[in-house]
Amino acid sequence: MQLTAMAMSTPFDEMNGWPGDEPRAAYAKVKAWLDAAPPELLPTRRAQAELLFRRTGITFNVYGDPGGSERLIPFDLVPRVLTGAEWARIERGLVQRVEALNALLADLYGAQEILKAGVIPEELVRLNPQHELAVMGHRPSKGVFVHVAGVDLVRTGPDDFFVLEDNARTPSGVSYMLENREMMLRLFPDLVAKAGVAPVETYPDLLLDTLRSVAPAGPEPEPTIVVLTPGPYNSAFYEHSFLADKMGVELVEGADLFVRDNLVFMRTTEGPRRVHVIYRRIDDAYLDPLFFRPDSTLGVPGLLAAYLAGNVALANAVGTGVADDKAMYSYMPEVIRFYSGQDPILGNVPTWRCREPDHLAYVLDHLPELVVKEVDGSGGYGMLVGPHATRRQIEEFAAKLRADPQGFIAQPTLALSTCPTLHDGRLEPRHVDLRPFVLTGADGVKVTPGGLTRVALTPGSLVVNSSQGGGTKDTWVTDL
Amino acid sequence: MLSRTAANLYWTGRYMERADFLARLLDATVRLSGMPTTYGDPAAWSGALAAAGVAEAFARSHEGEPEEAAVVRYLTVEPTNPSAIANCVEHARSNARAVRTGLTREAWEALNSAWHEIERLRAMNPAKLEVRELTETVQRAVAVFDGAAQRTMLRDDAYWFLQLGAAIERADNTARLLDVKYHLLLPRGEPVGGSLDYFQWSTILRTVSAATAYRWVYRDTVKPWLVADMLIFNDRMPRSLTCCYASIVELLDRLGAGSGRRGPAHRQASKVQLELRENNVEAVFASGLHEFLDRFIVDNNRLGCAIAEQFAF
Questions:
Q1: Which of B10, B95, B101 to mutate to test the interface with A (most CBs of A within 10 A)?
Q2: CA distances (Å), origin B142, targets A1, A263, A431, B89, B181
Q3: What is the rounded average pLDDT of the residues B262-274?
Q4: Alpha carbons A127 and A150: distance in angstroms, whole number
Q5: How far is the CA of B174 from the CAs of B25, B53, B236, in angstroms?
Q6: Cα A210 from chain centroid (whole Å)
């Protein structure tokens, strides 16, 4: 495959292009500024940024880390810049992709036309634990399933953007998109102004509009919207509180809600108050102990019944996991064609489905050059990065693969683009990806320009997940 | 407002107030214990423990007469003492962190910075820990937090629950402070107005930052009954019981205004306020200051329970 061959060459750099290229026009202002900056400026600003992040408490909790329970995600000062033209294409691709995700879910929980047409193998849905039978036939309020999507993109060349993952459950990271911009505005106001950066500050308002637009019809003029969090020990708790705060809605835990007569209420100091829309940051499995995991104390007993009765909207809807697992991912180009009749604007990374014997055979033969991922994994856990693995790790992984081929997919090790990143006072290339956030309400799909750029801080590393030591950058869409 | 949010804000207010009180108490006790023994007070440190309400807990883990270093450690950074200053700040922060939406960014950052600062001091070698550095840090942090809350928070339930917690804690602290001095430290047979007495009552005034205010109000030397009058009945003294209860009743009225309902907390607060109004310092001394304060502390605790009941904490 072409992409495999590409992995061997030097990666494309967001600022400097291919080796030997002139610096890219998108970065002209940033580069001029970096070149003119005195050497101690960046380290000084970085220390300031860290202090500010700590003071604000922009931290995440690491599971299974007994020592430091609250950690900062490293923030890199050099922005990741996209031109307006680049972004326009990405945006069209994202809208198309997320529309297809919503159409797919409506179909999988409805008439299942796509299965009848044989575009997707039936067992991929029937045997998928994420295909939630409890909501079969239920049409969520206004027909929207994925209100908030975080689509992970990677870049391998000037015009080569690929979708790496569709996160359609409870994607996180949007608070970093917003806080990183705040930080840049605070530390480098002139530079941000000069570069003509498209604002991201409207995201909370767009989110609120999106949630409001799917409120179930009722006599109340204003729907009550809440953010449902698993609580302060959750890794993304800061984000939950941040979003509730920016939208001006209550941040609730499961115990703050109860269901009576299939209506959802929250316990307030002035008695029960009806809740209409729940932006939930809790996985399906924990939502309602009566239906899902009975041992869950995070959820609300009776919530699913209220949801099925159409008395409360959940964002995202129950059961979206069937659309974003990594096995379904490989069919997304066909899914887009099936529902829209158009070719995908953003391509997929070529994917071998280990469930298919010839793919499995290929994967087992080429493990040292592939990335192998669990179908339902996330956070960069449980994956094998072939080129960086030891012989022994590869053998162990091969055994896992043979034991459960359904559970894995493999992709070529992509030469992800790099972006200059501050390391020990110097700028060095580090691999980056991009997670734009896509909102879908009753009135269509909206994308905030930019998104969260994640950066692998270890030289040569391709794992950008914050739980694995990745950092973040501000992402600029400029008017160039 | 969400009941849990209200409870978290209420306890944030209480713990910040307690941290501030403990810091003042330590400052004043350091000063008192530094006096020459003729004027000073050998029992200053056990008095501080009693005022903080942790004398028994301290005795369980320490033998003999409480000594300065041990008490300071216990009241500042001891992990097993839930009321140690560092733990109060930590409790305040974890309550606030659970309801960040209830606080403005400024108020939260003030609290979060205080916590980082205290954690830094806590991590230091205890032998090198400067009491004054810690107490000043805490007092400054509470002032910044209060200021940020006052300047930036909407005047609605969130702000009022925060203030309510602070007012109830403040009343409790003032009552305990007076009570300790009264029944533990006034030695039998010591003539009223004697020198030992003088420094002890001055210490009370310092603990509540009222030494100068006292002169302005009474234009007299320090006299126990006037100190008691000031801290119980003076309606201009922000830490007096009367003043605390004026705030409490007002805050409960505001909190009830939305629903138009008055619950058990209103009734309890009004009852205590009425008793304060119909009393005076002569009557209190005649019937026993200790008995009066004891009853007040119980009543104040009952109010805490009534608030939890009324607002479904």
A1: B101
A2: 63, 42, 44, 9, 25
A3: 94
A4: 25
A5: 11, 12, 15
A6: 18
Question: Which residues make beta-bridge pairs with A277?
Answer: A225, A313
Kindly compute the dihedral angle of the four CA atoms of residues A53, A54, A55, A56, in this order, to the nearest 10 degrees: 50
**ipTM of this predicted structure:** 0.78
For B135-170, how does the pLDDT look when each residue is reduced to its tens digit (9 = 90+)? 999 999 999 999 999 999 999 999 999 999 999 999
- Amino acid code (one letter) for A260: R
Distance CA B296, CA A454 (A): 58
- Partners of A55 on chain B (C-beta within 8 Å) are 109, 112-113, 116
Domain residue spans in chain A?
A: 350-413
Mutate to test the interface with B, among A178, A268, A273, A275 (most CBs of B within 10 A): A268
Distance CA A175, CA A236 (A): 9
Rounded-to-integer distance, Cα B117 and Cα B140, Å: 11
A251 and B101 within 8 Å at the Cβ level: the answer is: yes
| Contact (CB, 8 A) for B200 and B186 | yes
Task: Take residue B126 and report the two structure tokens written for it.
Answer: 């205890």
**And the tokens for B227?**
């100190």
CB A254: neighbour CB atoms within 10 A? Answer: 23
Class of CATH domain A350-413 = alpha beta
What span, in angstroms and rounded, lies between the C-alpha atoms of A298 and A300? 7
Q: CA-to-CA distance for B246 and A472, rounded, in angstroms? A: 50
Distance CA A238, CA A215 (A): 25
Q: What is the largest CA-CA distance in chain A?
A: 69
Half-sphere exposure of B189 (CA within 13 A, CB side): 0
Alpha carbons within 13 A on the beta-carbon side of A100:
28
∠ Cα A231 A207 A211 (to 5°): 85
State pTM to two decimals: 0.86
